[in-house]
Amino acid sequence: MTDFAAVLLEQDQDGKTRAQLTRLSNSDLMEGEVTLAVRASAVNYKDGLAVTGRLPVVRRWPMVPGVDAAASVIASQDPRWRAGDEVILTGWGVGETHLGAWSQRMRVSGDWLVHRPATLSPMEAMALGTAGVTVAEGLDRLKRHGVTPADGSVVVTGAAGGVGSMAVMLLAREGWSVTAVTGRPEEADRLRQLGAAEVIGRDLFAGPAKPLARERWAAAFDMVGSTILAHVLSMLKPGGAAIACGNAAGMDLPTSVAPFILRGVSLIGVDSVRVPTARREAIWNHLAATVDRHRLAAMTRVIELADAIEAGRRIVDGAVAGRTVVAIGD
Which of 77, 94, 107, 217 stands the most exposed, by the fewest C-beta atoms within 10 Å? Predict the structure, then answer.
C-alpha cells in the first residue's frame, strides 16, 4: 500500500481547526522503528478536543487524531517486535505531537507498544482503550491507598461517558457499590445494566460547593472536574479518596482545604498517557482476564473511519454515551 486513508487535522490562518478524511502516503509517516497497520481505534474525549480545536490538544500541525490503536506490525527495526505481532498503543502523545491512529498506517517507537492479549479482539481492545487503562490504574491507586469496597460505596461522575461507563463497569466487577452521576436520565437503565447500584442526577451538585457536606461515599472516580469535583470532595467519608481523571466541566477546582485537613480525604490524579510499559502489560493482561465481555459489548458502538470526525464533534457536546470504536483496516 503506497497510500492510505486517514483523518487529517489542519489549522487555518485564523487558528481554526479543519478536519477531513484524506489519503496520505508512507512518506507522510513520522519517525519510529515500527510500522503498523491499524485495525481499530476509538473516539476519546481528547480526540474530540483535537477535532474541534476547543482546547489546544494538538501541538504539531498537520495532525492525525486518535490516541488509541489496535494494530498489526508490518515492519520493525526494533528487535522486540516482528512483522505479524498484534499490538496495542495508547497515550505517549499520539494524536497530539505524533501522528495518531485514525489512519490505516502509523510509524511509532517500539517503546510505546504492548502485546495485545490473544483473548482480546482488536475491537474489544479498543472498546477498553485509554478508558480501560485509566480506570484500571485508578483502581490500583485506590487499593494501594488502602480504600476498599468494605469502606463504603463509590461515586462516579460523568458516568454516561466513555471513561465513566468504563468506571461503572470495572468498579462493579471489583465488588464496589457504585453510585453513577449523570445529567442524562435516559442513560439510567444502561448504567444499571453496567453494574450501577444507584443512578442520580446532578441536582446534588448544583451551586457552589460547601467546605464540608454530609458524608456519603468512601471513594470517587471523577471525570468532570471543576465544581462537581469540589462537591464530591466535600461529601467523602473520613479517609476517603477521589480519583481525578477528567475535566469535562473545566480545569478549575473551587474547593477548600477542609476535606483534606478535617476528614483526611485524598485527591489522587491518574495520568494514563505515560504509564510505564511493564505496568501497561500488567493492566492489559488483567483486563483481558477479568472484563465482562457482554457488558463491554453493550456499552460499545462501532463506526467507520469516515464517521469518526462527526463522532469526535459529538463527544465534546456530551452527545456520546459509552465507548465508540473506529473500525479501520485496509
Answer: 77
Question: 80, 115 in Cβ contact below 8 A?
Answer: no
Q: How far is CA 255 from CA 223, 230, 252, 264, in A?
A: 16, 5, 9, 15
Strand partners, 323: 300
289 part of a folded domain: no
For residues 67 and 112, membership in a common domain is answered with yes
Report the C-alpha gap between 85 and 36 in whole angstroms.
10
Within its chain, how far is the Cα of 96 from the centroid?
A: 15
Q: In the block, which residue shows the cell 485537613?
A: 261
Q: Are 174 and 233 members of one domain?
A: yes
Domain presence at residue 277: no
Q: Which of 291, 250, 244 is nearest to 269 (CA)?
A: 244
Q: CA-to-CA distance for 183 and 170, rounded, in angstroms?
A: 21
Q: How many residues does the chain have?
A: 330
- Write out pLDDT tens, residues 123-159: 999 999 999 999 999 999 999 999 999 999 999 999 9
Question: How do 236-244 and 266-269 pair as beta strands?
Answer: parallel
Q: What is the pLDDT of residues 179-209, one digit of tens each?
A: 999 999 999 999 999 999 999 999 999 999 9
List of E strands, 157-287: 178-181, 198-200, 217-222, 236-244, 266-269
Residue 37 lies in a domain: yes
Helix (H, G, I), strand (E, B) or coil at 284: helix
**Global pTM exceeds 0.85:** yes
Is the domain of 139 the same as that of 206? yes
Neighbour count for residue 111 (Cβ, 10 Å): 12
Structural domains counted in the chain: 2
| Burial status of residue 31 (CB atoms within 10 A of its CB: 0-12, 13-18, 19 or more) | exposed
Contact 168, 196 (CB under 8 A): yes
In a domain, 219, yes or no: yes
Q: Which of 309, 320, 325, 318 is nearest to 10 (CA)?
A: 309
Statement to judge: residues 105 and 197 lie in one domain: no
Domain containing 97 equals 3-116+299-327
